[in-house]
Design goal:
Blueprint (H helix, E strand, L loop, with lengths): L1 H25 L6 H6 L7 E3 L1 E2 L7 E9 L2 E5 L4 E6 L6 E2 L4 E5 L2 H25 L4 H22 L4 H23 L3 H28 L9 H24 L4 H23 L3 H23 L3 H27 L1 E3 L4 E6 L6 E2 L4 E6 L4 E8 L11 E6 L6 E13 L7 E9 L10 E6 L7 E5 L3 E4 L2 E8 L2 E6 L1 E6 L2 E5 L8 E3 L7 H13 L16
Antiparallel strand pairs: 1-23, 2-17, 3-12, 3-16, 4-11, 5-7, 5-10, 6-9, 7-8, 9-11, 12-15, 13-14, 13-16, 14-15, 17-22, 18-19, 19-20, 19-23, 21-22
Length: 538
């Protein structure tokens, strides 16, 4: 164990001496500083460093731009469309009317509900109010009347009542018997005498009239008037005679029997008094009258108030529902934005659940693209993206990843995942359904630079680049990352765009350099840099 400890101390000492020696050799007064600084830029071969993020680890995918949220305006009540107030493309504010429905039936329903509420409220108010003097007087009179009826029902019928009832029964049956028997001989003689007398009088009046009928105004004379009167008297006497001698009609006989039976029933009722059923009925009427008077004196009880209150509440609920249905006929925008579609026409019959329009805020757009499974781990929520729109060549939009789908969205042939990007900045001219391409950059490469691998100088664990600025070579400490062929990703706060480093790559001419750049662009890239010194030797 002691030997291992001493070996570790030895390694640390050697590393320290190596770093110290490198600094002494290449420092301002070091022995290697003069040879390097003595060289001119013309004598050195240099290569420009490049942002790693612009070349390595790029992922791109295309998709269609859509609004972040599309508002679907759906009817919640049936109705006829009277007027459509917007067209596709119009900009509306929240609350702006989109269309107008016929509300006649809904308004009538609301009015009926209001009347039901008023009726229920009136009934409740009446229960809560004390009885008036008139109501109390009527209730007391009704009670007194029913009490008198009870007293009468408890007493036997008076002699005068039974006598009158018996007389009514006798009279009714006598009438029936007369109808059935017809007139007596004396009545017939009298009727025949009256008929003969009227006939003689008519004949005498006829003779007197015949004496003057030659005159033009005979009808206006006394003889004419006398003849007319005698004729009427004769017809009346004849009718009386014929009615008397005719048999009684069946309906008259039945009516007479019914009247006789009614009279007999009244007599029987009087003779049966006091009757237990009549007494019970009279007592019930007295109790009802007493209850009514007590209610008026004491007011409505709690149960009556509660029942009336429940009825009023039910009416109010119905009114609220009627008004709610009426309000649903006011089809307005729920959000501010642009009208995407209008799906109804004036005069059409719209039904509950029918989508009549769609709205969206075109200042809030997003792009959804499918990223292959080999690249999805290089994408993270919050990652910045650059977006190019086919319809806007030369323009680049910015965006940020807001969602990554957790399941495959590429179908059976390939595995990919839906990545949703929120667009930001100036979205002028960008419309839904436009095709766009998103470019993702590995966040781990955001601060990295590509330098020739041969330019990296290592002494132990330390690494530097010889950077030429304004003809002066400066040693810049760097952290080396992933190796990409002849290039290595390095990190240093001092590095900046345009820096030239001492070194070279095999692709000397521009065509070779472009080919090398293209190959690097196609390389997988991305991900966190590997161990700084795990990428090979310079």
């Amino acid at each position: 164990m002691k030997r291992v400890f001493l070996w570790g101390i030895g390694v640390l000492v050697v590393a320290g001496l190596s770093i110290g020696g490198f600094v002494l050799l290449t420092g301002e007064n070091g022995p290697l500083a003069a040879p390097i600084s003595a060289q001119t830029t013309a004598q050195m071969e240099t290569v420009a460093i490049r942002p790693a993020a612009s070349i390595l680890g790029q992922i791109s995918a295309s998709g269609s731009i859509v609004p972040m949220k599309t508002e679907h305006v759906v009817l919640t009540v049936d109705g006829t469309v009277l007027e459509v107030l917007v067209d596709a493309g119009d900009v509306v504010q929240a609350g702006d009317a989109l269309l107008r429905l016929d509300t006649g039936d809904l308004e009538r329903s609301a009015l009926l509900a209001e009347l039901d509420v008023a009726t229920a409220q009136n009934s409740l108010d009446q229960l809560r109010q004390p009885a008036s003097a008139t109501e109390l007087a009527e209730a007391r009179a009704d009670l007194a009347s029913t009490e008198q009826k009870l007293i009468d029902a408890q007493k036997p019928a008076a002699q005068a009542e039974t006598t009158a009832a018996r007389a009514s029964v006798a009279s009714a049956w006598a009438k029936y018997n007369d109808l059935q028997a017809g007139p007596s001989a004396a009545e017939l003689v009298k009727l025949e005498a009256n008929l003969r007398k009227a006939e003689v009088a008519m004949q005498e009046a006829q003779r007197d009239y015949d004496k003057v009928k030659w005159a033009g105004d005979a009808g206006m004379t006394a003889q004419g008037a006398a003849l007319q009167k005698a004729t009427i008297d004769y017809e009346a006497a004849k009718a009386d005679y014929e009615v008397s001698v005719a048999a009684a009609a069946q309906t008259d006989l039945q009516s007479a029997v019914s009247q006789a039976n009614d009279a007999q029933q009244k007599l029987d009722d009087l003779l049966a008094r006091p009757n237990a059923a009549d007494i019970a009925s009279a007592e019930a009427q007295v109790a009802a009258a007493q209850t009514r008077l007590d209610n008026l004196l004491n007011g409505a009880d709690d149960l009556e108030i509660e029942a009336a209150t429940i009825k009023l509440q039910a009416a109010l609920v119905s009114l609220g529902e009627a008004r709610k249905q009426l309000a649903k006929a006011n089809v307005s925008a729920t959000v501010a934005g642009s009208v995407l579609t209008v799906n109804v026409q004036e005069g059409s019959q719209a039904r509950t659940g029918e989508e009549v329009a769609t709205l969206a805020d075109l200042s809030q757009l997003e792009l959804t693209v499918n990223v292959a499974e080999v690249d999805i781990n290089k994408v993270a929520v919050g990652q910045a993206t650059e977006i190019s729109v086919d319809a806007l060549p030369g323009s680049t939009l910015s965006g940020e990843v807001v969602r990554i789908g957790p399941v495959n969205s590429g179908g059976a042939g390939a595995v990919s995942y839906a990545v949703t990007i929120a667009l930001d900045g100036d979205l002028s001219g960008v419309l839904p359904d436009m095709t766009a391409v998103a470019r993702f950059v590995d966040a781990a490469l955001a601060d990295g630079w590509l330098a020739p691998t041969t330019s990296i100088q290592r002494v132990g664990e330390a690494a530097t680049l010889s950077v030429v600025r304004e003809g002066v070579v400066t040693q810049v400490p760097v952290t080396a990352g992933a190796v990409q062929g002849e290039w290595t990703v390095v990190y240093a706060d001092e590095l900046q765009a345009g820096d030239q480093v001492v070194g070279s790559v095999r692709a000397a001419d521009s065509s070779q350099q472009n080919e090398q750049d293209t190959m690097m662009e196609r390389s997988p890239g991305g991900g966190a840099p590997p161990n700084p010194f795990g990428g090979g030797n310079p």
